[in-house]
Design a protein that fits this description.
405 residues; Immunoglobulin-like; six-stranded antiparallel β-sheet; four-stranded antiparallel β-sheet; elongated; phosphatidylserine binding
Length: 405
């Protein structure tokens, strides 16, 4: 009994040496060390996963290089140092794969459409139209000109057999064009512009929209209707599916004419001219774009309109920050005389481009008047103005360009 009581007294004295505060402190310290160990383990696992992923990318790039060498008959030959360094970088491989998609997206703005006019009895001036091998669909509509009321009635009925499977929300944009009184025979004037309702989910949408406008008989011989079928995209650019053009001098007065026309490839119309100057500054790696003058026919016969220009620069299909001009009052020749500097990360080459978009200011927003695209799109697509800029270093070169829409 003496030994047991002596042991209890020793245990009680030992427990007094370590109060409860110390016990909880040691427990908290052990938990903290456990948490740190788990964080270190997680970091090591993430690092191993990234190394494994980068190794897979290197292996994929190496296999792609071997396939390319076999296709080009270069197996066993040593590539040049610049090309070898370029091919070993996965970033450039991914960039090259994205180029076709971005080119297709920008083709709407940057396609170099050349104005081509028909004979005078054709009734309108149009861009060169290419008829595709496979039908893009049809558009059914009707036109009626009331010679007594001097009114033109357009009824857009439906579109038939649209081929694009991704384009499910469809509408039709209509422009009434007229030859402008100008020295340039290709210059057009937009008299009226309409848009049908958007029809969802259908390769053969039914519209049933009607549009009327006042039109003099003398205007029939030099006017035309352009109906452009588009896919509606709320968050991006509307995708054109095809167009139909009809000369109004073929209309019979007071008789409705039904049309069911094939959709052709969308072309551009010349609605004005823009005087642009370009200057290359290779030392500072910049390009200077000068917006000098804009020549247009008065839109919709409405005076006191104000317009401005937006300038976008692209290099290697990467868009630089755009710049805007000051608003000017619209006239037959609108003078801007403004210059804009853009920094180019690489020397000016064929893969650099400048897009000038002229907008009309409206109470509810803006309306596109036309666009001008400058630059080189490839080794076989030349731009004389761009070549002159490259030959005249640090000297501005000015030239007139057609304003297209």
């Amino acid at each position: 009994m003496i030994d047991v009581s002596h042991g209890l007294q020793w245990f009680q004295s030992l427990s007094l040496l370590f109060p409860d505060l110390w016990k909880y402190g040691m427990l908290s310290l052990s938990l903290l060390l456990l948490l740190v160990a788990l964080i270190v383990l997680t970091c090591q696992l993430c690092k191993c996963w990234k190394l494994k992923k980068s190794g897979t990318e290197r292996q994929f790039v190496k296999e792609a290089q071997n396939v390319r060498r076999q296709e080009n008959g270069l197996q066993g030959k040593r590539l040049q140092a610049p090309l070898l360094g370029f091919g070993q970088q996965p970033y450039h491989e991914v960039k090259i794969k994205k180029i076709p998609k971005k080119l297709k997206k920008l083709r709407i703005c940057f396609s170099p459409f050349l104005a081509n006019h028909n004979s005078c009895d054709g009734g309108f001036l149009a861009s060169e139209t290419h008829v595709p091998d496979r039908s893009q669909g049809k558009l059914r509509f009707s036109l009626l000109y009331d010679s007594k009321q001097l009114e033109l009635l357009l009824t857009v009925a439906e579109a038939l057999s649209l081929q694009s499977q991704e384009c499910t929300n469809t509408f039709v944009q209509i422009r009434l064009l007229s030859r402008a009184a100008s020295s340039s025979p290709a210059l057009q004037r937009i008299v009226h512009e309409w848009q049908t309702q958007v029809v969802k989910n259908g390769s053969s949408p039914v519209f049933g929209d009607q549009f009327t406008c006042t039109l003099q008989k003398t205007e029939l011989t030099k006017s035309s209707i352009k109906l452009e079928v588009k896919h509606f995209d709320r968050y991006s650019r509307h995708i054109p599916l095809g167009e139909v053009r009809v000369a109004l001098n073929t209309l019979s007065t007071s008789e409705s004419m039904e049309f069911c026309e094939e959709l052709h490839e969308v072309t551009k119309d010349t609605v004005g001219e823009v005087l642009v100057s370009l200057k290359c500054l290779p030392i500072s790696q910049r390009i200077e774009v000068g917006l000098l003058k804009v020549k247009t026919a008065l839109l919709y016969n409405s005076p006191e309109k104000r317009i401005y220009a937006r300038i976008d620069a692209f290099c290697n299909l990467y868009k630089q920050k755009h710049q805007k001009s000051k608003p000017k009052t619209l006239a037959s020749v609108t003078v801007f005389n403004e210059t804009f500097l853009f920094h180019l990360p690489e020397p000016v080459a064929w893969d650099c481009a400048v897009l000038i978009s002229v907008y009309e200011i409206e109470p509810k927003g803006r309306q596109l008047v036309g666009q001008v695209a400058l630059g080189k799109w490839g080794p076989n697509e030349r731009d004389d103005h761009w070549d002159c800029m490259m030959q005249s270093i640090q000297q501005p070169v000015a030239k007139w360009h057609p304003l297209l829409i």
